[in-house]
Write a structure and sequence with these properties.
The protein is of the alpha+beta class. The protein has helices spanning 8-18, 25-42, 79-87, 92-97; strands at 48-52, 56-60, 74-77, 101-104.
Length: 119
């Protein structure tokens, strides 16, 4: 189980504010990290690394573990896209088709894991 650093109530409040579009950088960072923690809790493991620069990254999904160097399965996106994916405002296939997500590796996908929260 992933260790939470952001209390759930704080994460939800930051997410609600971030979705308004005018949130401060710190609020946006909290929302992104909260959603990354939620993903790690729901899909524990070390097979896929999800990166949302500049705010955070997490490893998730059961399967083969990498131990050195760049992980073989990496997903990277921007904060706004991550929030849209995690809340169901954007689906995985559309995000990939529109190149809003960069995914490399045979297991680098989050189909079936998203959305994390419904708003």
């Amino acid at each position: 189980m992933a260790k939470r650093r952001i209390p759930i109530d704080d994460g939800r409040a930051a997410l609600a504010e971030a979705r308004t579009g005018g949130a401060a950088r710190a609020v946006l960072a909290t929302a992104v990290r909260y959603l990354l923690e939620e993903l790690a809790e729901r899909a524990p493991g070390n097979t896929v690394e999800v990166r949302v620069p500049p705010f955070g990254a997490t490893q998730c999904v059961q399967g083969p573990r990498h131990t050195r160097g760049t992980p073989p399965n990496v997903i990277e996106t921007d904060p706004a896209t991550w929030i849209a994916l995690a809340t169901g405002e954007l689906d995985w296939e559309t995000a990939i088709a529109e190149a809003r997500v960069r995914a490399s590796g045979s297991r680098a996908e989050l189909v079936g894991l998203l959305p994390l929260v419904r708003v």
